[in-house]
Amino acid sequence: MTDVVALAAELLAIPSLAPSESAVVEFVSRWLIARGWNVTIQEVTKNRGNVWASRAGRGVTFSTHLDTVPPHIPPRLEGNRLYGRGACDAKGIAAAMLAAADRLADAGEERIDLLFVVGEEQGSDGARAANNLSATSRFLVNGEPTESSLASGAKGSLRATVRTRGREAHSAYPHLGESAIEPLLALLPTLKDLPLPSDAVLGETTVNVGTIRGGTAANIIPAHAEAEMMIRLVSDVEPMKKMIEDWAAGRAEVEFGSYIPAQHFHTVPGFETAPMAYTSDIPLLTRWGKPLLFGPGSIHVAHTPDEYIAVDELRSSVDAYERIARHLLSA
């Protein structure tokens, strides 16, 4: 039987900062081939690709990502915690999925697929490519740290850049110019006055002003300024876009960027459920079946220097993935 903690530690020991995932992709592929899985490597870009492992198909696909955010942090075991980059996001999850899928296969259940993608932390090019594969599964169990609850849904996201323009002049003669920074600083606090939508399951829409840039030097009246925002969606995107456009009208330009829709997910009996405020690859994997979202660990420690996963939660997640799959396959 696979020791999921040892397997997770092996995965954590391999640096896989996007877009340099080739070593961990090779490790996972060899592990699966050695256990009788049919493995396909789908090239996403040169020298990096997704791992698709199957047997009979037409059932449940376990899926998560193999890339991590920087910097690489090697694994260490302290008490009940396994630390390291990717411990909960998402190499610990990958290890649990591998162990659960292999246990199911050993028990004769061959309607399980595994899909491990690259690039989730940098634009999800792996998931976009994976959606071109000839998937046959009826359900997709995606893995992100949900604290071992089944996600009832997940907020979407919308990026927006707000720009203001002015006229440059020597700072000793400000009346000859027009600042672009001052109107932006006046506009941004009024975001809190917007009647942002809410959802009974997903909660409140939130807006984060993540960056502000503007001007060229302290002795020049600034002619340009901009702020980047991330809007966490709980409802349709078009009304949200209109609200932002109306808010900025006559005062700033708005350019919208990447968008992922809010989603409500399938759940199964016997698990606690909770909404998630972050996004995942699920909206990009539409061909892989009805989606569920589940994983051990907490998003609150992901991307931090002390990222960890509790050993007992990691072990119990193997059982949880098996229970989820068996319930779905019995439907």
Question: What does this molecule look like?
Answer:
The protein has 7 helices and 18 strands. It has 2 domains: 4-154 and 263-330, Aminopeptidase (3-Layer(aba) Sandwich); 156-260, 2-Layer Sandwich (Alpha-Beta Plaits). It is 25% helix and 29% strand. The chain is elongated, with a radius of gyration of 23 Å. It has 331 residues and is an alpha+beta fold. It has helices spanning 4-12, 22-34, 91-106, 125-130, 181-187, 237-248, 311-330, and strands at residues 38-45, 48-54, 60-65, 76-78, 81-83, 112-117, 139-142, 150-154, 156-165, 198-199, 203-204, 206-214, 224-233, 253-260, 263-264, 273-276, 290-293, 308-310.
Strand content: 25-35%
Order of helices and strands: HHEEEEEHEHEEEHEEEEHEEEEEH
Count every helix, treating DSSP H or I runs of 4 or more residues as helices.
Answer: 7
CATH architecture title of the largest domain: 3-Layer(aba) Sandwich
Question: Which terms summarize this structure?
Answer:
4-stranded antiparallel beta sheet; Aminopeptidase; 331 residues; alpha+beta
